[in-house]
Fold each of these.
Amino acid sequence: MRLNLPFLAPNRKNARRYQREPVPFQMLLPLALKKTVSGKGDITKEAVCMQEMAVLFACFKKSEFDQTQCLKEVTSFQNCYKEYSQRAKVQREMGKKGILVPGENKMTHKQLNQLLKGFPAL
Amino acid sequence: MRNSLYVFHKLCVNITPGRWPSLLLQNRLYAKYFPDFFQNPIFRKEDQAKLIENNELSKYTTVPVLPPSASETSMHFDPLVNKVINHIMKDGNKKLARSLLEKAFENVKRKQIERYHLAKTPEQKAKIELDPKNILHKAVENSKPMLQLLPIKRGGITYQVPGPITEHRSLFLAIKWLLEATTEKERTVHFPEQFAWEIMDAANNTGKVVKRKQDLHRLCEANRAYAHYRWQ
């Protein structure tokens, strides 16, 4: 037998009720930007040495993929990548510590936080 | 070996009845014979000259240095040859790997001397490289790829995207390809014989390995339209 007693019914207060318009606004967080940024969007996307690679491909096609005929293009491509990896290494190391690199536009979240600490949002 | 000397007895001393906390509090279970801050020695004259040139010598004056290993300080030690031996090695049998490479070097030397004596004019003789180590260096240099294909997923489709390759990976691929080309042989042909042929071919910019490198470059060229999908 199933009991359907009124005192066992769900409490009126606990049952989920629909919201009546206008829904009252509740301020759960202060209405201001945070003083810091999170590190979620830190994956940098960059395709490097595209120009050098295009030149290399053109030379390869001309010389039937014989590397000895494209020494100039090969060295310029490799130097480009070497330079990039060195630059990226410095940026990574500085970014880990949060040290600001002068003249660098792309910053890690730690560097940005360092900058925001110096110049906080009003 | 020198870095993995356990001081297990240190622990054993600490395990005495009623002294459990001292064991549990120890955050390191073993100590190294040489701590991490000991630097590898720089004993090659070229490396030292590079340090002096870059004004980095003063950095190393106060740093404690590990003792050099006996094999690395030998006059005949070649880092590339050592690397190739380590790639040939199976199950840690370095002795066999070294003997195989030495036998291959002997085969190269014999073949090159034969060519040297068959050559008629002094100009032709001067062109023939007799040092097998130099031939190996040249072979690896010629087998190194300059580009690589990376699988990158965009919109549910995996694109093979060409891009530059690091020096380290390119060296690894060159040695791997040389060894893979060597193992593709008849059962009656032995490793040293086939390896000698492979490195002589690669040093001459011909053969299976150089073709494999060029094929990779061709594939990269064919997929160059996807190059802008690359990200680092």
Amino acid sequence: MKFITIDKKNWAKGIEKSRETYRLFGPVKDKNGFFIRDLEKDMLPDMTCNDSVMSVKSVLFPQTEKILFASLNEAKEDHHIMKRVPFDPKQRAVVGIKPYDAKAVELVKMNFDTDDYRDPYWCDAYEATTFVGVGINKPGPFDFSTSTGTGPFSETGLDVLMADLDDAYLAKILTDKGDAFMKSCGFDKVADEKESLALFDILRKEAEKNISSHIDSSKLKDKTVLELHEAPFWDDIAFSCINCGTCTFVCPTCWCFDIQDEAKQKYASRFRNWDTCMSPLFTKHATGHNPRDSKTQRVRQRFMHKLKYFIDKYDQGIMCVGCGRCVKSCPVNIDIREVCKIMNSYVKSN
Amino acid sequence: MDTCIQKIREIAFQLLDKKEVERVIGFSNGTIPMATSPITIASKQDTEKLVFNSTCGLNLANYIRQQKGKIAVIAKGCDTRNIVTHIIENQVKRDQIYIIGVPCKGMINKSKIKALFEDEIIKFDEDGEILNVESSSKKEKLNKKDYLRHNCSLCQHRNPVIYDVLAGERVEEQIIDVPYPDVEKIAAMDADTRWGHFQDLTKNCIRCYACRNACPLCYCPTCFVDESGPQWVGKGQDKTDVNTFHFLRAFHCAGRCTDCGACVEACPMEINVRDFTRKLNKDSLDMFGWEAGLDLTKRPPLDAYSPDDPNHFIK
Amino acid sequence: MENPYLPYPVRIDNIEIATEDKSLKTFKFVFINPEDEKKFSYHAGQFAELSIPGIGEIPIGIASSPVEKGFVKFTVFRTGVVTSHLHNMKVGDIMGIRGPLGNWYPWDKLENKNVVIIGGGFAFTTLRSSIIYMLDPANRKKFKNIDVVYGARSPGMLLYREELYEWEKRDDINMHITVDGTNDTSWKYHKGFVPQIVEQNAPKADENTYAIICGPPIMIKFTQPALVALGYKEHQIIMSLENRMKCGIGMCGRCNIGKELVCKDGPVFTLEQLNKTPKEY
């Protein structure tokens, strides 16, 4: 295992140097918090970011992405024949993301990269991206990531995991991609492996100790879908919901999307946009029939997907990484931790 | 506020005990600091769950449509004005709603308080006019009046305008000499600066529609942004489409908005969408002498014609 | 692997009005690149996304049969934005087709079995595909008795009328054509709703008999008890579902019933499978 020490004095220069090879993404402070954005010239990832309002998912899966286009001009040979928007093959690196977001990318991958189909937009972006994470020394009060198979120093999905040591970063190189990125920055001061491992271990334990929020999802797997689906608690959970899609948009694991066409003069574009199961339109048939017409049905869908269907389909735990974003952003304080507790402890009475 | 909570619970208990209403809609404590959550209660034992404090920034008038039977609702001044609007617009019947009015001294601006801390707030409570706020790294004692939401600091209808019972003593109304300083400031900008202001305002919008969905006025069965035949607005993040949503929604609320602030309260991006609606509120006041939701007998100005209506814009 | 969002370009080769009220039209498409036809190799019961650049896409069951070569056929009800646009298109127009998508009727399992096909209204498209497939000389011997119950509001609302009447004359398929009602005195087939015709005419179930149902929810709702009365077990009742879809490849998330995605894990399910999932269709 290779470790590299990066003096923070050299950080900016190194990151700047990596631009020769990489298009950079990272946390940027904006009005109401941090966002993961395309870092334009002279912008550095803001490493003071403890948590971003929006997750890293938009790097691979932008909220609006043009996927196909066609000319509608009948004078042209290829009119009405759709083509893929060319993919920018330049390597990308996301610098300063949190371990739970990298775990989320791995969960989302299960949807976009399957045995039957490969989503070329997501997968091409994924393959071109290097994930440079930074451990969370002081997890916030809404971080329950240790209950979801990740944690403040989890390595899942990362190419590099860095630890912030005040005046330096200690970087653990996890993959060849990570190694290549560090080289492109010119960061090559190798640190002692044994010491570094021990240091990471201390930091991880300390950080995990600071996590105050936990959930128990252990019993969900053995319940039947219908038992949970028909449980009596959904109306109460859903009452306050206003069916905005905030929870789904801020969620790093929510992947649902809509496909929309637009035409401007003689040019057609096909886009995909994030969609949300909170919207009645999500499932409304052209006939007007809607299988999830009530807000209770829609709220139930969201939690059943995350906490039951996903478990049943992949057997890889729940579709939640414990980042706490939905808990903080929900305008009516519907808290997935509480819903999980209700579902997990539910026993059908006869 | 404590006495008001007791009063709310007693009233709710009595109403449910005597079966005068089927359910009571109010607020319950949230799971995180500075949060409360709308709740519906059908059993008198559950009335202990009801709370009221300066974090109850949503508008419960948004929860009373399409309810079966008679229901009671806890309502601040602005909420009652939206109930009036609902009654005028035939969304609810007066005799279907039992209004537990709460005189209100304003709700707090949560973003402003959060901005005082670098880390997350882990504890919040209020002691009269004092707010005690705590994160892992520091504690703050704040005067509530310095951290009121902008709409609350300019509110002139803190007392419920319509109610069946009051859950507290009436509070003194604020005298506001300049009710729309923010609108005047924007109006004074030159066109480019003003456009820039609005562009910057909506730039982080994710089109979750929390503003619309938290708004008691936005009850259209199909909102124009969701209509597909014909499609009025693109569904992506194109700036024109994002702005079209905000502009048109504001116009749709003209003469009906009570400036309750639920839209801003709900916005996960902390966009002050009131910059749009308040301009139209000011116009309603300037042109028609109108403030929404004060009178059960009058229809909103854009919903009624009068020969005295201003017509200077017709050239 | 190819881009599953990229439609194959096709040209509209023929448009036929399918029902007397003109609400349904049958579109025959030919592939602009002949090699795409091979890639679009499908089974009866699958669907495809009809893709009109600048307008949108709609999932539609494939009405042509794998044994028919040189074209693909879809019968489309005019209802939303895309279908309305499609109804106004002309022969020769270029558009796209994405697919084939979804699973299909379990042809392997149905070998050496009696097959009862039950359809109502417009939901006869993939059933037509199936009948043509089964009646193909190369395939007919793979199946035992074939019964078809198909009904519509009136004679003019039956899809593929000419073919129905031809099948009626054959002795290797038992047709039970019905209409809700008609004033046509020359009407020589059944009158009555599909569930009732099923009850009266469909064969009783033994373990070698399977029913495939496709139709409006109300028909399905009343046909189920009729089949149960005839002894069909949950696993012998095969249904094809419709839900709102976008991607058609199991990724966009909207068409799920429980963990199953109607577009990819379906649209064909047995009643046994459906009874274990939420009824969100």
